[in-house]
Each structure stands twice: as structure tokens, then as C-alpha cells.
Amino acid sequence: MRWDPDRYAAFADDRARPFHDLVAQVAWSARDGREAPRRVVDLGCGPGVLTATLATRWPGAEVVGVDSSAEMLASAPSDVPGVSFRLGAIEDWVPGPTDDVVVTNAALQWVPTHVELLPGWFAAMPSGGWFAMQVPGNFDAPSHALMRAVATDGPWAGALDGVLRADPVLDPAGYLGLMLDAGLEARAWETTYAQLLDGADPVLAWVRGTGLRPVVAALDAADPSGALTAAFTERYAGALREAYPAGPHGTVFPFRRVFAVGRKP
Fold first, then answer.
1. Is the pLDDT of residue 71 over 80?
2. In whole angstroms, what is the distance from residue 224 CA to residue 256 CA?
3. Is the Cβ–Cβ distance between 203 and 197 less than 8 Å?
4. Which strand ranges, in their side-by-side order, compose the sheet holding 185-197?
5. 80-127: pLDDT as tens digits
6. In Å, what is the CA distance from 67 to each residue of 76, 89, 91, 103, 156?
7. CA–CA distance, 87 with 65 (Å, rounded to integer)
8. pLDDT tens digit string along 177-211?
9. 156-191 b/e with 16+ CB inside 10 Å = b?
10. Distance separating alpha carbons of residues 258 and 36, to the nearest angstrom
């Protein structure tokens, strides 16, 4: 299942807003003689543009972006001092003794075991370290509910059996509980962003860069000619147009996101 950096970047401003809102809640203060985090890790960094902004936020830190997509990392900036990138699966990552800030933005929903991994990560982090996470919370929204409904009703149903999960993330209370159980000082919340999209079938264009990827990968594998993918996409696009009609200013696409931030005493 390949990522397309250009398609993902098509809505760069809307995708960046939750990242900046998340990082703003990491209230690093001088402790143990350290004016800045020693190392800042961005788990699931994608094309790395947002990762590079962490070097501006904490100029004295080593900043490392980790992502499992070679295509995404090929687009990452290579000329930002103090910033480097590493190819690797999130589920294989383990916090190091100097990982003072860990940020993961819209990535853990792709890791089915992330709820089980979080307590171990929290335990391994250094004292005073921060863990900041954001995941999409829109899996019950029409964009995703319709994707699942269409997936079960057509000649593509067999190829898509088991591909889509109903809701791979917790609510804010769930992540808050995990952090508090691990002894972190924590807060969690959710925000629904009313995103204004334009162009033809803009919601379809949005999900093509993220949630629709596993569907397309499975359909292309089942039918390399692309006919099955085209038929599914046509049916799904029509359903999206009804659910998200264009208005005089564009198409409003509400997007719920779940945040949790914790500091290890």
C-alpha cells in the first residue's frame, strides 16, 4: 500500500492545523538544567514538512522523523539543520533515553496495536518527557460510513472483506485513561474542524490521500485492469456528493480529531 506525497499534500493547510494545535500544548520548561528537549521524535512524519517546524520550535534539539513510507520520506526536506529522517515502522519504535518530546500526528490510526503499545512507550520515556498525539476521530462520519457501506455492496465486496475497520481509535477519555494509568500528567480533548474544500468531488480527493488508500490497494490487487477500482470509486463518489453537497462557498467537510498530551513526572 503506497503513499502518494503529492496527493497527501493537496490539502496541506487543513492537514497542518491539527499538528500545530497539538504541538502548542507541549509546554516544555527548563528542567534538570536543560533549556530545550534533547531529542524530538515525530512518529509517522510523512513528507516531513511539519517535522521541520519542530526544529524552529526547539532549535537546540535533535529532531528525528520516523515513517514507514519510502515514498513519503523521499519528499522530506534534506537541508534543515538538526533534522533527520529514518525509515521504520511505528510499531517497531522504542523511546530512547533522550527522547524528551514525542509527537505523533494522524498516524497511530494506521497501527492496529497502538493502544497496546502506548503503555510501554510511556514507561520507557525519560522523566520530564512529553508525549503528544492526535488521531482522526471521524470514522463514523459519512465519508467513512459510506465507504464501508459501498464496500459491502457490489462486485468488489469479496476483495474488500476485512480491509476496512469501523473505528481504530479511542475517544479522548480512552487515551486520557491510558496516560493517567501510566502516571503521566495528561489532558485530552477533541476538535471538529469545519474544513472548506473546493474543486470537483473534493471529499473524494481528500480521502484518496488517506482513508481510501487500502481500498484502492485491495481493488487494484484483485483487478489490475483498474475496472473494479473505477466502478467502486464512481459509486462512492456519488454517495459523497449527496452527503456533502457543494454550497455557495465550497464544500464543508467536518473533520473530528482526537488529541491527548501527557508529561511524565
1. yes
2. 34
3. yes
4. 83-87, 62-67, 39-43, 99-105, 130-136, 251-263, 185-197
5. 899 999 999 999 999 999 999 999 999 999 999 999 999 999 999 999
6. 11, 6, 11, 12, 30
7. 9
8. 999 999 999 999 999 999 999 999 999 999 988 88
9. beebbeeebeeebbbeeeebbebbeebebebebeee
10. 27
Please provide the DSSP assignment of the chain as one string. Answer: ----HHHHGGGHHHHHHHHHHHHTT-----BTTBSS-SEEEEET-TTSHHHHHHHHHSTTSEEEEEES-HHHHHTS-S--TTEEEEE--GGG----TTEEEEEEES-GGG-TTHHHHHHHHHHHSPTT-EEEEEEE--TTSHHHHHHHHHHTSSTTHHHHTTT--S--S--HHHHHHHHHHTT-EEEEEEEEEEEEE-SSSHHHHHHHTTTTHHHHHHHHHH-TTSHHHHHHHHHHHHHHHHHS--BTTBEEEEEEEEEEEEE--
- Mean pLDDT, all residues of the chain: 91
Residues 253, 245 contacting (CB under 8 angstroms): no
CA 166 to chain CA centroid, nearest Å? 16
Q: Judging by beta carbons within 10 Å of its beta carbon (0-12, 13-18, 19+), is residue 92 exposed, middle or buried?
A: exposed
pLDDT of residue 95: 96
User: Beta-carbon neighbour count of residue 89 at 10 Å?
Assistant: 12
